[in-house]
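so my prof wants the structure for this chain in the tokens format not the other one, which i didnt know existed until like an hour ago. anyway here's the sequence
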Amino acid sequence: MINFEFYNPTKVIFGKNVEAEAGKEIKRLGGHKVLVHFGGDYLQKSGTLDRVHQGLLDAGLEYVDLDGVVPNPRLSLVKKGIALSKKENIDFILPIGGGSAIDSAKGIAYGLANNFELEELLMGKVTTDKIAPIGCISTIAATGSETSNSMVITIEEYEGQKNLKRSYNHDCARPLFACMNPELTYTLPVYQTASGASDIMMHTMERYFTNTKDVDLIDRIAEGLLVSVREAALKAVATPDNYEARATLMWAGSLSHNGLTGTGRQSDFASHKIEHELGGMFDVAHGAGLCAIWGSWARYVYKTNPARFAQFAVRVFDAAENFHNIEETALKGIEAWENWCTKIGMPINLRELGVTPTDSQIEEMAEKCVATGGGTVGFFQPLNKDDVINIYNMAK
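here's what i got, hopefully its the right format
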């Protein structure tokens, strides 16, 4: 186990009807005028937006709405939100939704608290530890952005390049509170539910596949989370109003990406970097894109540490262990993951994802991918441009 720091100050308010508590929390934290940030019309149709508005008014707060969030949130909307917030003297940001709404809100909050263009932050030209206060109301179990330090935004155009999906991570971006009501996830389309569950699994697996030794404590925590999500996703897809399954997914989403399962070890995140380029170029659902990529990544790198893959197979997917052939056990785990993806309706290759990149597009994605890591991505097995090209081609 290596040295680590773990910091997670987000106050989680979990359960039925807790979205009504947002106004009280913002008042307690000193907010006066709130930017309510969201996307789509489902919040209006379900009455959730009206309940949130009323809670803000009951707390004596003013608010301004900003609609328009889409999957793979765009920098153009973030900039619109920054300008609106400055014009309206906003002092608190409240996203309602999943990772896209929350990440977009984090971008607005960074822009409100700093004097640089957000492209500079996302492209690594500046850093900051300043952000305007954020709380959030989660309506999707997926990214864990409600308790994470991460923000991912798509830059539509930058210095001649288009659709760059880039991130910035800092503990200041952890929301001050998160209202999490599993009932708000009942009406999600099955595909979105499954994609979210896959993202939860992947956030844990990106940390689980490590070469750091003597990390059994966090391994066991991660394995328990993975098994719970594996089972809850099957139930939620089959029975959308299963409260316990939805609650498991929603809480697991936060636990998978709040940093806990990465403590004491070197995490990988190559699959995320590879998928980010798919998302940037083809605008695919993030969790689905990860499913389409991971099996190919796993088969490409598993020989680096087959024992870790074998442990995943046995402890997470109940595979029989072949003590005479550890690689066979390792491959069983990869196959079991893909079988699970298929059962919940997720793709296991780019064809099933509906994406058919050309050779030139694959080369472009690979080049952009490794540029984010200075020439390589990942730590389980560092991957250069040619490696990433090979993985994209395997995934076809």
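also thought this was worth mentioning. The two ends are 37 Å apart (CA to CA).
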